[in-house]
């Protein structure tokens, strides 16, 4: 369906700019134009509304809605041992699918139209069930298939079959344990496997052991890689990431909650590393991008480095996040030709009234309750009630 969103405050992100009284024209699921008095057969009045690109969450374990808030007072080590290890041992493909669907719907309800799902799927059956759930949700996704934290390495044949699950709104990436958490032989194997299958690599990295240098020295460091967290990485490791054209996904809320280390946002920006934002896990923090943007902005005050503005944070939540996942040519801004992944916010709601700067208001004051409409590829997302399925799937997981 072709349509125009009429008379909105339109916020674009490349560059970040707000334009009142502006229309957004969508044709064949893509952005056709932004401007005034644009015409289409269907007109959606967006007076007193803010229209902006859909948010991009660059790192989340979607299925963990099944154990929401279970780890709110836990360190990273406790999260691994008290939740992830026991739950991963019993989680069925059916439970994983329900959690993935609910997590994806939570994303959409708060304006996140693209999500990188780092699933920890232990078998091909789990991965297949999760990808089917992603398709059912209507979200745009990069599904990370790789070795679970606890358990044997994924069978290469399963990964090859997993690579074939992609298509439409779902891309497949390899999500190995990586150089911070596995030996060199496994790292070599995983990176060569990803290269042979044409898959992006998404992997957690810690600040010890020079993991980026390890990849660089073996010819494995390339732009098709997204490093998650990286708190404590020394400057020379961040420079290697920047020089390779690779990217980083930071999760300021979880990193603060679980004690990962010094906030990363100023440091990645200082080195020019494309930086996306990730909720990571709703076991301890909120699952919406508005909360995450505020955590990012506040974390910038807790470390040294370049100044970070609300506009910078909005870019990380949109077009820079898209770049961090290799999707900058598809989503993240309102550039004509990109997919029409859009969020409409009610600017007339009490918490947004009086805003002099709509960009700052989105970052510092908006919340999921302001979201009125969400479009993915020009298709408006429909509500799905999965509450009973989530209750059934979650029962007994953390007893």
CATH architecture of the largest domain: Alpha-Beta Barrel
Would you identify the CATH H-level superfamily of the largest domain? Metal-dependent hydrolases
Shape: globular
What separation lies between the terminal Cα atoms?
Answer: 48 Å
- Average pLDDT over all residues: 95
Which CATH C-level class of the largest domain is it? Alpha Beta
* CATH topology annotation of the largest domain: TIM Barrel
The sequence of SSEs as H and E is EEEEEEHHEHEHEHEHEHEHHEHHHEHEEH
The overall strand count is 16
Helices, by number, come to 14
Query: Approximately how much helix is present in the residues?
Result: 25-40%
Taken together, the total number of domains comes to 2
Into which percentage range does the β-strand content fall? 15-25%
- Oligomer class: single chain
What does this structure look like?
Helix content is 34%, strand content 23%. α2 packs parallel to α3 (124-137), α2 crosses α14 (387-394) and α6 packs across α7 (235-244). The mean pLDDT is 95. It is built from 14 helices and 16 strands. Strands 1, 2, 3, 4, 5, 14, 15 and 16 form an eight-stranded mixed β-sheet that branches. It has two domains: 3-53 and 333-380, Roll (Urease, subunit C, domain 1), CATH 2.30.40.10; 55-324, Metal-dependent hydrolases (TIM Barrel, Alpha-Beta Barrel). The termini are far apart. The relative contact order is 0.17. It is of the alpha/beta class. The protein has helices at 76-90, 93-109, 124-137, 156-163, 184-197, 211-217, 235-244, 252-258, 265-270, 289-299, 310-316, 319-324, 358-364, 387-394, and strands spanning 3-13, 16-27, 30-35, 42-45, 49-53, 55-60, 112-118, 140-145, 170-174, 200-205, 225-229, 247-250, 275-277, 342-346, 371-376, 379-380.
């Amino acid at each position: 369906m072709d349509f125009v969103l009429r008379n909105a405050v339109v916020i674009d992100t490349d560059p970040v700019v707000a334009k009142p009284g502006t229309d957004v024209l969508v044709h064949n699921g893509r952005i056709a134009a932004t401007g005034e008095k644009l015409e289409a057969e269907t007109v959606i009045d967006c007076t007193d509304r803010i229209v902006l690109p859909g948010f991009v969450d660059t790192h989340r374990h979607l299925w963990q809605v099944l154990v929401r808030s279970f780890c709110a007072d836990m360190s990273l080590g406790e999260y691994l041992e008290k939740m992830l290890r026991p739950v991963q041992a019993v989680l069925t493909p059916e439970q994983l699918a329900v959690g993935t669907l609910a997590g994806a719907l939570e994303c959409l309800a708060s304006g996140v139209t693209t999500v990188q799902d780092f699933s920890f799927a232990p078998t091909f059956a789990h991965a297949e069930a999760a990808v089917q759930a992603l398709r059912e949700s209507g979200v745009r996704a990069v599904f990370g298939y790789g070795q679970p934290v606890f358990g044997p390495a994924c069978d290469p044949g399963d990964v090859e079959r997993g690579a074939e699950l992609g298509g439409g709104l779902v891309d497949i990436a390899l999500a190995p344990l990586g150089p911070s958490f596995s030996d060199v032989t496994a790292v070599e194997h995983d990176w060569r496997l990803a290269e042979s299958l044409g898959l992006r690599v998404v992997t957690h990295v810690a600040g010890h052991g020079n993991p980026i240098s390890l990849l660089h020295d073996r010819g494995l460091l390339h732009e098709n890689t997204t490093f998650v967290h990286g708190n404590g990485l020394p400057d020379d490791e961040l420079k290697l990431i920047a020089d390779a054209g690779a990217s980083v996904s930071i999760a300021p809320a979880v990193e603060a909650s679980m004690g990962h280390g010094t906030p990363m946002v100023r440091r990645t920006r200082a080195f020019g590393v494309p930086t996306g934002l990730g909720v990571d896990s709703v076991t301890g923090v909120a699952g919406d991008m508005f909360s995450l943007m505020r955590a990012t902005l506040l974390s910038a005050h807790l470390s040294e480095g370049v100044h970070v503005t609300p506009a910078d944070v909005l870019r990380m939540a949109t077009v820079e996040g898209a770049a961090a996942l290799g999707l900058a040519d598809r989503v993240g801004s309102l550039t004509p030709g990109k997919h029409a992944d859009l969020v409409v916010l009610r600017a007339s709601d009490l918490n947004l009234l009086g805003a002099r700067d709509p960009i700052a208001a989105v970052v510092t004051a908006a919340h999921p309750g302001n979201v009125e409409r969400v479009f993915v590829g020009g298709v408006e997302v429909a509500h799905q009630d999965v509450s009973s399925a989530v209750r059934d799937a979650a029962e007994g997981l953390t007893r």
